[in-house]
Amino acid sequence: MDLGSWRIVLSLFGVISLLFSTCYCDKAPNYSFMKEATFAPQVSYYDYIIIGGGTAGCALAATLSEGAHVLLLERGGAPYGKKVVEEMSGFGANLSEDDVHNNNSTAQQFVSEDGVVSSRARVLGGGSAVNAGFYSRAGTDYVAKVGWSGSLVNESYAWIEKKVAFKPPMLQFQSAFRDGLVEAGVKPYNGFTYDHIVGTKIGGSIFDHNGKRHTAADLLEYANPNTTVVYLFATVHKIMFRTKGQYSQKPRAHGVIFRDSKGIKHKAYVKAGEMNEIILSAGALGSPQLLMLSGIGPKAHLKELGLELLVDQPMVGQGMTDNPMNAVMIPSPNPVEVSLIQAVGITEFGSYIEAASGTNFANSIIHLMPTSYKTSQPTSNQEYINKVASEKLYAGLILEKIIGPISSGHLLLKTKNPSDNPSVTFNYFKEKEDLTRCVKGMETIIKVIKSKSFSKFRYSELTIESLLTTMVNLPLNRCPRPANDTGLFTTLEQFCKQTVMTIWHYHGGCQVGRVVDKNYKVYNVSGLRVVDGSTFYASPGTNPQATVMMLGRYMGRRILQSRTAALKKKSFKD
Ligand SMILES: *[C@@H]1O[C@H](CO)[C@@H](O)[C@H](O)[C@H]1NC(C)=O
Ligand SMILES: *[C@@H]1O[C@H](CO)[C@@H](O)[C@H](O)[C@H]1NC(C)=O
Ligand SMILES: *[C@@H]1O[C@H](CO)[C@@H](O)[C@H](O)[C@H]1NC(C)=O
Ligand SMILES: *[C@@H]1O[C@H](CO)[C@@H](O)[C@H](O)[C@H]1NC(C)=O
Ligand SMILES: *[C@@H]1O[C@H](CO)[C@@H](O)[C@H](O)[C@H]1NC(C)=O
Ligand SMILES: *[C@@H]1O[C@H](CO)[C@@H](O)[C@H](O)[C@H]1NC(C)=O
Ligand SMILES: *[C@@H]1O[C@H](CO)[C@@H](O)[C@H](O)[C@H]1NC(C)=O
Ligand SMILES: *[C@@H]1O[C@H](CO)[C@@H](O)[C@H](O)[C@H]1NC(C)=O
């Protein structure tokens, strides 16, 4: 071997040791690249600017930082050290936060025009910091229908799972529920798997073996600290566009205006270069809202609000869809563990059945209602609520979510302030098929409650009818009640409608083929994509967080691939 060959071998060795060396990366929660936005310069420049440090945004930022300089802007704070985030028993606490402008709360409540009380995350990690933690992949049929590459999808899921997915403990209550599902005919039993297959299974959880939650923010451990900047309490007000440009005739997104917690304005721009972009990952409410605030939306609506029109795009805010949640609370004579979702029934008829348990669980359901609403109930209802809430009871909650759903609605702005909630209508159960699925799901839930396996966790003297009637009388939503409301119901269809809640899986507003193309690029502008659940037509898998994180990773890989290809082409030309 001559000297030249030795050099090649040595440099190869260098490359290999770089690839396999232990990461120089930061460990959560001590990210050197994460700061409050008050520390941001007045003006700064990056290759990619991601709006929204949520379930998709964190995975996307970590991935893009492998090959470019990335800015991630999050309107909330960090999830670390917060009990409401990290502990299972904290679930729900901040979902009932009434003060929608408290930036320090991990969630911002909103009420749909239908009257269903819901929440949007406001914390690094997004929905994964406030949800029930269930981790389950999308079905292969979903992946095929959307047209994603199956192998890159699987690689991306695996990347997520290495960091944030765990096998849940499955104690007594969850085990009885699982066996009850099988007894009720939700078969076969598929054991523990992340895969979406018909039957009963145990899924993953983002709560680890010590019961500690790991959010999408932990994926930032993968980020290159030298090429990543994360600003917290950074509220983006507008995406800026250049309308005359060297690259194309279309308006080109080239920067964002954001404010820090002191209200000080900052600007961040993408550096010159055709491949550099702004990516919206602000969620199903935030992404369509910010497009409209930036002038992309239905012309008449923007005019009504006095917003300057950039592109007339009537589909922005359309296809808003929310999977209804219907539940039955079951007081238990025996102690139950504190559990969120662990086992799930995936039925053939398109209804997913899950369960949670805890001490005084009734209280936590009522906890989900805003204080103002709880205290405005008529006296008879009030007494009832107090009774259920005060009793120290053990209870389980069996709930269902329907696939899809088919019914959908729309989103409109109420104000020009990005911190205000937009108005959103979901039209729950407008389509008959959704109602049919709910009824079938309820019939299965009733079978589970009646099953031998579950008998230990219910009082035999409490009839199914009384359990259901209890639910009908709790203030679960603010939907208008019929004038002749007697607090009773005669059919399961009525039950489904009267007890409708949300499972917080709302999606749509920037759907593929309507607002963005199949590469998630916003139509009729350049340099702008949307990568989050607002692009979906249906909620993937039983619970979407796995797939929303996956999409962040998947699109990050895709974007870097085309960046590399473009650079190669350029150097070839030069
Ligand atoms: C993060 O920093 C704190 C304070 O310096 C330290 O106590 C903690 O151990 C660090 N955590 C990790 C995971 O490195
Ligand atoms: C936000 O919450 C943290 C603790 O979670 C607290 O230290 C801080 O003072 C709060 N900030 C404001 C402005 O309330
Ligand atoms: C969140 O929940 C915790 C626990 O119930 C509560 O102490 C806190 O006030 C809530 N709100 C905020 C803004 O953190
Ligand atoms: C992806 O993984 C699923 C199981 O999780 C498997 O069924 C499917 O065949 C895999 N797809 C590819 C392209 O490898
Ligand atoms: C970040 O920069 C430092 C100092 O230049 C370097 O030692 C380190 O390898 C870099 N980290 C990564 C992940 O590239
Ligand atoms: C919340 O953040 C927004 C924008 O960052 C800011 O204008 C507002 O003053 C903040 N509110 C509080 C209570 O800190
Ligand atoms: C209430 O009235 C509607 C028609 O207005 C009827 O369909 C429904 O069955 C009534 N409900 C009860 C509980 O009587
Ligand atoms: C893009 O703009 C063209 C010309 O104004 C219009 O015909 C087309 O419908 C627009 N595409 C979308 C998806 O809005």
Structural write-up:
It contains 15 helices and 26 strands. The protein has 574 residues and is an alpha/beta fold. It folds into two domains: 3-24 and 164-212 and 321-502, Cholesterol Oxidase, domain 2, CATH 3.30.410.40; 34-84 and 215-317 and 507-573, FAD/NAD(P)-binding domain. It has a seven-stranded mixed sheet with strand order 8-9-20-21-22-19-25. It has a six-stranded parallel sheet with strand order 1-11-4-3-15-26. The longest helix is centred in the C-terminal third of the chain and has 29 residues, at 545-573. One 2-acetamido-2-deoxy-beta-D-glucopyranose binds next to loops.
Topology overview:
Blueprint: H1 3-20, E1 34-36, E2 43-46, E3 48-51, H2 55-64, E4 70-73, H3 83-86, E5 107-111, E6 117-121, E7 134-135, H4 140-146, H5 150-164, H6 172-183, E8 189-192, E9 199-202, E10 204-205, E11 228-232, E12 235-242, E13 252-259, E14 265-270, E15 277-280, H7 283-293, E16 296-297, H8 299-304, E17 311-312, E18 318-320, E19 324-332, E20 343-346, E21 351-359, H9 361-367, H10 371-374, H11 379-390, E22 394-402, E23 409-412, E24 423-425, H12 432-450, H13 464-473, H14 492-498, E25 501-502, E26 528-530, H15 545-573
Parallel strand pairs: 1-11, 2-14, 3-4, 3-15, 4-11, 8-9, 15-26, 16-17
Antiparallel strand pairs: 5-6, 7-10, 9-20, 12-13, 13-14, 18-23, 19-22, 19-25, 20-21, 21-22, 23-24
Organism: Chenopodium quinoa
Pfam families: GMC_oxred_C, GMC_oxred_N
Signal peptide: 1-25
Put the structure in a nutshell.
Keywords: Disulfide bond, FAD, Flavoprotein, Signal. With 574 residues, this protein is α/β, with parallel strands linked by helices.
